[in-house]
Amino acid sequence: MVYNKDVPVALISFHDCSLFAKIKMSIGAHVVEIPCEVKKNPAEEKKAKSTEAKAKKEKKAKDLNTPKRPPTSFFLFMDDFRKEYNEANPDCKSVKEVAKGGGEKWKSMKTEEKKFYQDRAAELKAEYVKALKSDKEENEHDKKDSTEKEAKEEVIVDDE
Questions:
Q1: Distance CA 72, CA 97 (A)
Q2: Is the Cβ–Cβ distance between 102 and 78 less than 8 Å?
Q3: C-alpha span between 82 and 99 (Å, rounded)
Q4: What digits encode the pLDDT tens for the residues 95-108?
Q5: Which positions ≥6 away from 131 have C-beta within 8 Å?
Q6: Is the overall model pTM greater than 0.70, yes or no?
Q7: 73-159 CATH pick, 3.30.40.10, 3.40.50.300, 1.10.30.10, 3.90.1150.10
Q8: What does the DSSP assignment read for 24-48?
Q9: Which residues touch 121 (CB under 8 Å, ≥6 apart)?
């Protein structure tokens, strides 16, 4: 096999030094070497990422006066079911058994039987929405008052 020494070999990435030397000696051409990227160990990558400072998202300040969300129809059913179950089985203290029994009974109930709990949940949700709207209006009113006070304070400071 005869090699043409006038034709340069380009863009060859070599992983093994001995292979590089053999090819270079046999070809005798100009070889352009591209250094291959060394892959980091996954553990090292995690350490590097964890040491970098991450910008944390600011949490919204919770308003303690906002109304609590109403329970769903299933949770209303579970309140009644727990009372019945504890009366029937006073010696059973396992939460797991009560939850399992409640879930099975809820699944086996017909839609007519569930309707009572669904109606109660809808009523509670309607009350919640009204309370939420009134709370939101109060908060907006309070914000307007506080911004007006701040504006008055700035005017007073500027006048002095």
A1: 21
A2: yes
A3: 8
A4: 999 999 999 999 99
A5: 67
A6: no
A7: 1.10.30.10
A8: HHHH-S-EEE-PPPPPPPHHHHHHH
A9: 70, 71, 72, 73, 76
